[in-house]
UniProtKB/TrEMBL annotation:
The lineage of its organism: Bacteria, Pseudomonadati, Pseudomonadota, Gammaproteobacteria, Oceanospirillales. It comes from the Bacteria. It is a multi-pass membrane protein. This is Transporter. Signal peptide: none annotated. It is found in: Cell inner membrane.
């Protein structure tokens, strides 16, 4: 057993901070994490208390971590004053809601001038914190939403209404009405997105931080390598498996690329994958981590809240689509390895499963606790609390056993000084985990806060219903065209918004149309929008995860983006299959569910083979051409059409296998 791994990279650590600021960041971050643990497992708080304190601490942390003029410039006097003013704004707006909550509720709808002023400060503070932590795009969309609310004959900016297309017009709202919606009610900044961020998401992000800081990430990567390393294209397959596991916990495809990719991409290149292929594989696999249970980034909790579906049910129905996605990426990796004649890694270069499990089996215990408590239908927030506590206990026991029993055998004596040193090191590791969890949560919480502004304006102005009407008109009632519009909208939103915010905004806009006008079941509509919200990670010209993979692989960003797009094709096809074959999500007779799962996997495999022109051996153009309509037939909700498509695919793929057998026999005979 070895000592715990080195410290992880902490978000915002690249900024130039003075020592007092660093101490203050640690103090606020640790305080935030302890507050979240207290409210999750010891004393739950009321809705506004929980959300306002959480947001205030998150914004304080954002203004400390991200200086006003950027991370690579010193604050200086002007920057320090600006940051101090916004920091004070975060404290004031959160504190005001906590101290005067009863009075605010008592005068609901008849706000005082102080309420309005504090609400304006809160909105400006949220937008600025978002600009620093999430990016300018999110802030711009939030500002546009506010301007849209003011545009109209009764609004603060009536002249703006003259520039609105007819269907987008509304009456307009004054400052008091908008602030009441955004800050003083439950449908704005402190709405459902912030509620999910302040409860479920944070505690699981904290759990992921402790997994990362205690070395569990390396354990799962080593386990993936031990399981797949000797196969053809082993490192690429290990990247797929490791990214599936770590991506679900990390909550960010880009973060997953730069962490697991640091291990996997160099090994893929060494084995024979081209740099842009290696970067694309890692980007596609890391993006898949965001749709993988149990956490699905932050999506599982949001979907559960929006659809009023038990969290465990969302996890259950997401397992098969996630398997289908990773099976497709895995098959792409395998086909490329076959085409390029790659071999696996030597046994001497790989960790042994036995050794990996002996050194890190204890990391599985917190995951077992998490799954067991979820199955017992405990609240996800309480489950996250116990998962974090069990992770800390396991880490302490691991370190204690190493110190008392392993270290003495290596010549390190147990003395009072060494005990003091070990206790201090353990305390430092605990603080590191608490700080890392809080830092990791800043971006997603700020995205949810601004998403609350957007959702509040949409609810106030009725924009969602108007957008649904436009969507129905443009698609002409055709469901495939409507889904294509959702895909394009998610890609455009993905240019400026993180995945979580993109999903929230998009589901508010298009969700009503998908369910009421096109008859898509509610849960499937949310899953489709959530899956499509990932596409900005792998779709050129944006392909954010692809560009991150290019940076690690040393390849051209656009080439890597196109590779990621190719490998992640399941991201576009599987939601279509959910819509036209809903039994794989909402259930049905067991034979029907099994049939649908079989034809979906077969179609995805055939699609990969057609795209690469290779399966068991090279495919000529004729079977590839014949297979395309057969793949399309599988998505048609008619049993006879589906069966015909399956027969054609089995014939073409079976024919490819027979050709491979003949080639192998001929090669053996000539040899």
């Amino acid at each position: 057993m070895s000592e715990p791994a080195a410290s992880p990279i902490i978000p915002g650590s690249q900024a130039k901070h003075s020592r007092p600021i660093l101490w203050l960041i640690t103090l606020v971050a640790v305080g935030l994490s302890l507050f979240q643990l207290y409210s999750a497992g010891i004393q739950p708080l009321g809705l506004f208390y929980q959300r306002s304190i959480h947001l205030a601490l998150i914004m304080m942390l954002a203004f400390l971590m991200f200086p006003v003029f950027g991370p690579h410039r010193k604050r200086g006097l002007v920057g320090g004053v600006i940051d101090l003013l916004f920091f004070a704004g975060a404290v004031t707006t959160g504190g005001y809601m906590v101290v005067f909550l009863d009075d605010i509720i008592g005068r609901a709808g008849f706000w005082s001038q102080t309420d309005i002023v504090i609400g304006c400060i809160a909105t400006a503070t949220v937008l600025e914190a978002s600009r620093r932590a999430v990016g300018l795009g999110m802030t711009v969309i939030g500002v546009l939403a506010i301007l849209y609310a003011f545009a109209g004959p009764r609004g603060e900016l009536p002249w703006l209404g003259n520039f609105m297309p007819g269907i987008m017009e509304h009456r307009g709202y004054n400052l008091d009405r908008l602030v009441g919606q955004l800050y003083l009610g439950q449908e704005g900044i402190f709405g459902l997105p912030m509620g999910v961020a302040a409860t479920y998401i944070f505690v699981f992000v904290l759990f992921g931080a402790f997994l990362e800081s205690t070395g569990a990430g390396k354990f799962f990567i080593d386990l993936a390598y031990a399981a797949t390393g000797r196969q053809r294209g082993g490192p690429a397959k290990a990247a797929v498996l490791a990214s599936a596991g770590m991506g679900s916990i990390s909550g960010s495809a880009i973060a997953n690329v730069v962490t697991t990719g640091a291990f996997t991409i160099p090994l893929m290149k060494r084995l024979g994958y081209k740099p842009h292929q290696a970067g694309g594989i890692e980007a596609a696999a890391s993006t898949g981590g965001q749709i993988t249970p149990p956490l699905m980034g932050a999506g599982a909790f949001l979907i559960a809240e929006y659809t009023n579906t038990p969290y465990l049910d969302v996890v259950k129905v997401s397992i098969l689509p996630a398997i289908m996605y990773f099976a497709t990426v895995y098959l792409f990796v395998h086909i490329i390895a076959l085409k390029q004649g790659m071999q696996g890694m030597a046994r001497s270069e790989l960790p042994q499963v036995r050794d990996v499990m002996r050194q890190g089996w204890h990391f599985l215990l917190p995951l077992a606790v998490l799954i067991w408590l979820l199955v017992m239908h405990m609240s996800p927030m309480r489950v996250g609390f116990y998962a974090v506590i069990s992770m800390i206990v396991v880490a302490v026991l691991r370190y204690t056993i190493w110190f008392l029993f392993i270290a003495p055998q290596q010549g390190e004596k147990v003395t009072l000084a060494s005990i003091r040193r070990v206790v201090w090191a353990g305390f430092h590791k605990l603080v590191e985990g608490l700080e890392l969890g809080a830092r990791n949560a800043v971006a997603v919480s700020m995205a949810c806060a601004v998403a609350g502004i957007i959702v509040g304006v949409v609810g106030l102005t009725g924009l969602g219903l108007k957008f649904s009407a436009m969507m129905l008109a443009f698609s002409g009632g055709n469901l495939v065209l409507a889904l294509l519009m959702v895909l394009l909208a998610s890609l455009i939103l993905g240019m400026g918004l993180p995945v979580t915010a993109s999903y929230i905004v998009l589901i508010v806009l298009v969700g009503p149309a998908l369910t009421s006008e096109f008859g898509v079941p509610l849960l499937i509509a949310h899953l489709v929008v959530f899956w499509y919200s990932q596409d900005s990670n792998v779709t050129p010209p944006i392909a954010l995860a692809g560009f991150a993979g290019a940076a690690v692989a040393g390849s051209k960003p656009m080439e890597t983006g196109f590779q990621a797009w190719k490998f992640a094709k399941g991201l576009y096809l599987i939601p279509l299959f959910m819509v036209f074959n809903p039994e794989i999500i909402i259930g049905g007779p067991v034979p029907v569910v099994i049939w649908n799962a079989f034809i979906a996997l077969l179609a995805l495999g055939a699609f990969a083979a057609v795209l690469e022109g290779y399966l068991f051996t090279r495919m000529s153009w004729l079977p590839r051409l014949v297979t395309v309509p057969a793949i399309v037939a599988v998505f048609y909700p008619d049993l006879i059409v589906e069966a015909a498509g399956v027969v054609v695919m089995l014939l073409t793929l079976g024919g490819n296998w027979l050709v491979h057998r003949r080639e192998s026999s001929a090669a053996a005979a000539s040899g």
